[in-house]
Amino acid sequence: MAYTFAQYQESADYIKEKIGDFIPKVAMVLGSGLGFLGDVVEHPTAIPYGDIPHFKASTAPGHKGRLVFGTLAGRPVAVMQGRMHHYEGYSYDEASYAVRVLRLLGCDTLVVTNAAGCVRTDWKAGELMLITDQIKLFSESPLRGPNLPEFGVRFPDSSHLYTPRLQDIARKAAAELSLTLREGVYFYGYGPQYETPAEIRAVRTLGGDAVGMSTAPEVTVASHCGMEVLGFSLLSNMAAGILDQPLSEQEVLDAAAAAKDKFSQLVLACLEQL
To answer: Tens digits of per-residue pLDDT, 226-268?
Structure first.
């Protein structure tokens, strides 16, 4: 189904009743095992997705499925603890629905995180990657269907989905924290199955450095409605075929827990400069 502008507005109006005069400026979408930042928001107001008109539930492991409004690193934020995925059975406009609602609430920046498989054989699991671009070739766009001019134009430019100015902030923050920050292209895959070794070889050939099952739909929608975007991947595991071992969701969650401190330091340092 294609959502109408009135439906987005209905969701935003419901949230406004809960948060009052608070206006979030930074939206944050936190992926698998990374939602802990929502737990340290100051003066929080938490709203379960299921309470918000037209929102869908988040069923992925490690996703709490709620919006948290408050202050983080001195910035007014709206934190999505968990996201909706296409592999859960949602259409792309359902999976990215929340981004437009947050835009209506006042957010002009999106910080997006995910746990991703590491495609590069010269990198290692547990490292962080600054997303500089994305590849989403083989699926429909979340902008498919009638265009809503209240959000953006029919044929939006995608030259800089991830904002160069924000990437510079991330590079500086990582250097000041003495953190290794890889930079690369995020390749979107449908899921929920992990990719085959042959698919990973194809991803590498096409220019992907990390591969995952989220992020690309939300970023496409955020750019369409005029938001600046900063993205990070936690390279939670080596992608299929690189190591002679099966992949598992527990490996992803364990990697997120191990990277908690350095990941939160980097994101909070960036927030302070937004």
So the answer is: 999 999 999 988 888 888 777 777 877 787 788 888 999 999 9
Distance of CA 24 to the CA centre of its chain: 17
pTM of the complete model beyond 0.85: yes
Name 230's Cβ contacts closer than 8 Å, sequence gap at least 6: 109, 110, 111, 112, 162, 163, 166, 167, 169, 170, 270, 274
Residues 6+ apart with CB under 8 A from 199: 189, 240
Q: Where are the alpha helices (DSSP H) in the chain?
A: 5-19, 92-95, 97-105, 164-176, 197-206, 216-224, 249-258, 260-273
What sign for the dihedral angle of Cα 182, 30, 260, 242?
A: negative
Buried b (16+ CB within 10 A) or exposed e, 43-59: eeebbebeebebbbebe
- Residue 29's H or E segment, with its range, is strand 26-30
Write the single-letter amino acid at 207: G
Query: What is the rounded distance in angstroms from the CA atom of residue 184 to the CA atom of residue 123?
Result: 11
Asked if residue 137 lies in contact with residue 190, where contact means CB atoms within 8 angstroms, the answer is no
Block residue for tokens 């959502």: 3
Q: What is the DSSP string of 173-187?
A: HHHHTT--EEEEEEE
Residue 155 tokens, joined: 């044929």
- Residue 129 forms beta bridges with which residues? 182, 233
